Amino acid sequence: MENKYKVEQTRKNHFHFEIPMANKEQEVEVFLMENSQPNFLLKTKQENFDIDLNELSHRPYFLIKTKANQYITAERTLPVEGMNNFRDMGGYETDSGKTVQWGKLYRSDHIHNATDKGIAYLQTLGIHTIIDYRSNVETQKYPNKQISDQVTTYQMDPSAHAAELAAQFQSSKEEEDANLINEIIEQKEKGTLVDHSDVVLTQYHTFVTKKESQEAFSKMLQIVADPNAPAVVQHCRGGKDRTGFGSMLVLGTLGVKKEDLVEDYLLTAKNRIERNRIKMEGYKKLTNDPVVLDQLYSFIDTKPDFIEESIDTIHEQYGSIENYVKKELKLTEQMVQQMKNMYLE
């Protein structure tokens, strides 16, 4: 992984900068990018520091300069009110030595929960394309808030739900948790309840191999490769599984290394800590069975094994993610190169 500063907005307009393996003797200069021009903020040798900014009308990007290098960095998880997992996939280095551009590729949970303030923030990001992996049932129950008339939405369901999740998705809003629990209890009583981790691992394998999934993710990549697409947001309901796989395909096609693909996936765990706590409190009001609760938690948990199952399956069968998207997802060499030209710098 790259040894570059990471940025997090810990409270409004207060940004914390941290570098994983800093050289304490290395001096850095930090600039705020405004209208493509750097505005000097500070000079420091600290590996961790904080910066307070005045109220901004736009999302901030920072230029970091050292004696040997310079690069742009920005906060990865964005403060979209009402949403917990909206984030930028920029900043990752590829095997060619290039870097994924910030502000062009986003991933998120569904936009249904965004507040009016959250929508106003999204309107500042220049979003042109939304890729929605949810089923018709999900979109009818939880319709997205509209960002603008200029945004085009494509719905493509990979049809790769585990049986328990399918039971939940088909239920009404009021009954989905109870129906999911009843499905798990029924399987437990019949002796057909499989290890919860195996269910999720199977789903991540299915993303790679199932025809319906291949068709959906092929369409997604072709849309992302369209020069008119950026900025692109891809999302499902929670932004973990279907979005996790789709995001991995995009970054992997661009040449991002496996360790960074996994790191990007695992940010969902951090972003959903509070959301998962609330979800489990709700489940505990409906059941106190520890086996059922463990099974329920497995579907909202984020483990490296899950995305690694997809990545390893692709590497074992095709050698690389780029080979997989060309052979199975029917991307042409021209499309792949176009993606790299569009999203790398």
Give a written overview of the molecule.
There is one protein chain. This protein has about 350 residues and is of the alpha/beta class. It has 2 domains: about 1-75, Immunoglobulin-like (Sandwich); about 75-345, Protein tyrosine phosphatase superfamily (Protein-Tyrosine Phosphatase, Chain A, Alpha-Beta Complex). Helices cover about 40% and strands about 15% of the residues. The protein contains 13 helices and 12 strands. The chain has helices at about 115-120, 135-140, 165-170, 175-190, 195-210, 210-225, 240-255, 260-270, 275-285, 290-300, 305-320, 320-325, 335-345, and strands at about 5-10, 15-20, 30-35, 35-45, 50, 60-65, 70-75, 85-90, 105-110, 130, 150-155, 230-235. The strands form 3 sheets. A 5-stranded mixed beta sheet has the order 8-9-12-10-11, covered by helices on one side.
Write the layout of secondary structure elements.
Layout: E1 6-11, E2 14-18, E3 28-34, E4 37-44, E5 48-52, E6 62-65, E7 70-73, E8 87-88, E9 105-108, H1 116-122, E10 129-132, H2 136-141, E11 152-155, H3 163-169, H4 176-190, H5 196-209, H6 211-224, E12 232-235, H7 242-254, H8 258-271, H9 273-284, H10 290-300, H11 304-318, H12 321-327, H13 333-343
Parallel strand pairs: 9-12, 10-11, 10-12
Antiparallel strand pairs: 1-2, 2-5, 3-4, 3-6, 6-7, 8-9
Helix pairs in contact: 3-4, 5-11, 7-8, 8-11, 9-10, 11-12
